[in-house]
Amino acid sequence: MNIEQLLKNAIKEAFKTVFQLEISDFTLQSPNKGFEGTHTFLTFPYTKTTAQPPEKVGEMIGEHLKNSPQSIIQQYNVTKGFLNVSLKDSIWIEFLQHASTEDTWHHFAPQNQRIMVEFSSPNTNKPLHLGHLRNIFLGDSLSKILTAVGYEVIKANLVNDRGIHICKSMVAYKNYGKGETPQDASIKGDKWVGSYYVRFEKEFKKGNLPKDKLLSALEKIIEQSPKNDYSLETLQDTLKETLQTHTPLWQEAQEMLQKWEQNDPETVALWKQMNQWVYEGFDKTYQSINIAFDKTYYESNTYLLGKDIVEEGLQKKVFFKKEDGSVWADLTPEKLDQKLVLRKDGTSVYITQDLGTADLKYNDFNIQKSVYVVGDEQEYHFKVLFAILKQLGRPYAEGLHHLSYGMVDLPSGKMKSREGTVVDADDLIEEMIQIAQQRTEESGMAKLNEIDEQELQKIYHQIGVGALKYFLLKVEPRKRMLFNPENSIDFEGDASPFVQYNYARTQAIIRKAKELNINYAEKIEKKQLEKAEQHLIQTIYQYKETLEKAAQQYAPSFIVQYVYDLARAYSRFFTECAIFKANTEEDTKFRITLTEQTGKILKRALQLLGIEAPERM
RNA sequence: GGUCUCGUAGCUCAGCUGGAUAGAGCAACUGCCUUCUAAGCAGUAGGUCUUUGGUUCGAAUCCAAACGGGAUCACCA
Predict the structure, then answer these.
(1) Per-residue pLDDT reduced to its tens digit, A158-205
(2) For the structural domain made of A426-608, what CATH number should be given?
(3) Lowest CB count within 10 Å: A241, A342, A358, A390, which one?
(4) Where are chain A's structural domains?
(5) Residue A35, CB, strand B, below 7 Å
(6) Smallest Cα–Cα separation from A254: which of A126, A127, A166, A174?
(7) Shortest CA to C1' contact from A39: nucleotide
(8) What's the CA–C1' distance between A380 and B6, in Å?
(9) CA of A478 to C1' of B16 (A)
(10) Looking at residues A125-144, what average pLDDT do you find?
């Protein structure tokens, strides 16, 4: 049942009858605040074809709509080129009746397509922070949205478990760790390993080059500067990098990496041990925010992939070899540059590995689509990656998408691990739960007095984590967003506790209805709707199209906006319309039915965001 | 420097496939709990939609330029 389509058809029919005009498809809008109606039709585009001023067109169409035999229009009004129509209440009541008997009204047919959503993808040298949370919540929510519209979704995590970063932690642990374990120190494994990464950075800073070597290093840098960019910042960065490579500690890390690549048993054992600690820590974090993956890839298994694709690309003449033997992709037709895919010594680069991994994913799961949830600093990389895969004629190439998102900033600017300004994920989650508890104790304990302690803890957790997820999903992904640790994340207004609160209200009503043995699941006898009722039903109705839009555009933020709208519509209904003390029994039953449906959709929409809905709060 | 991206109320954000009087929340102010959950509801106040030009009957929205933030342009990942 598609109400918009009904109205559109009626309008098209009206044009045919009134003006003998076949009009092409158009979109309906919502009336602005202060204008009566449920839908708005714009008549501006038809002034020429009808040879009438916009007002006149509106009047004539409106009049026809209203007076046609099977009219679905209650009333209409015209201002300028805006024809605002109000659908008959019976349309909305019929919809609610349908929704309450057909639980599947918002379901989608299976797409018969598999889609992989890759997200989280942490490095194993430090704990998860606020930025990761934005990534994780986006990926998780998107997975749920895509599942809801009928895709078979595979949630994948590609862990960066190898490379120089983890070797740094290993070196530091070897030198200063004294064989201690995180268990000994009662520290979460990822925090433990992270502390050695920090230790490495600290120690190696002490071992700078003597000053006489600075000058020659500097000259070398200027010679090699690829972009002739002599800004102070660039020089400093490059200088630091050059100096790093001369410190003993750095060289130790390099050796460690080489040993690892040569499969040195002792090194591999240490590497496994440290990663294991990290995974144990990550698992705790994932658990606390209710995140799970269907598949975990490890770069230690994938970093050598892709070389055969380079070979294939050469044969297909997608790639070409330079004189020095390095292999390149020419993406100038795509307005991208040339891109190295294999070094002259035959070793691979980052993108080589990603080419291989793309094939691996396809072969493992036969996916038609693949979404990468990765920060916006890698936009160029993914443009290049996708362009190459397209040139190679991969069957999945059209279904590739980079869900790019901006960084989470602090009032002081960027989060920087070196300066210790990173907001730790576990700390933040813990803080959110505590605030939830504090809020509950301040305002709502009376409602919760018969609930046991364990259940209470669960509720605090749902509220705290929910508020965090909502906060991070609310903002459009491509925008940078601000987190101010001074003011805690909202628990009021446009925030998840408000939505959860309204869900809890719906459940309180349902409980009471059952207590009073009200049989509300009968045919609805209601004829006329209050404004708040009408608006609430209309908002429920919009769930399906919102979900579809969110899936099409990979945009969980649409669901956030929607769920807030729905909660607000319910809140208004709740205060304006008495349920158990309504004027008639029909009203009571109707309002309970409406409450039940609202509750279902609130819960469902929250679920799409990975947010749980407490039965009471 | 080239490319991409963002700039909307004091603050955080919606709105951007062109349409009416640009919306929420927070913060401020005013009402409303003997009545189903006040984490609420109703209201007041708050705006040169960064600027300038263009397209159009009509621009926060599209185009161009400027200014300001950010990213990227590695044989790093």
Answers:
(1) 999 999 999 999 999 999 999 999 999 999 999 999 999 999 988 877
(2) 1.10.730.10
(3) A241
(4) 3-87, 114-207+247-405, 426-608
(5) yes
(6) A166
(7) B20
(8) 17
(9) 14
(10) 96
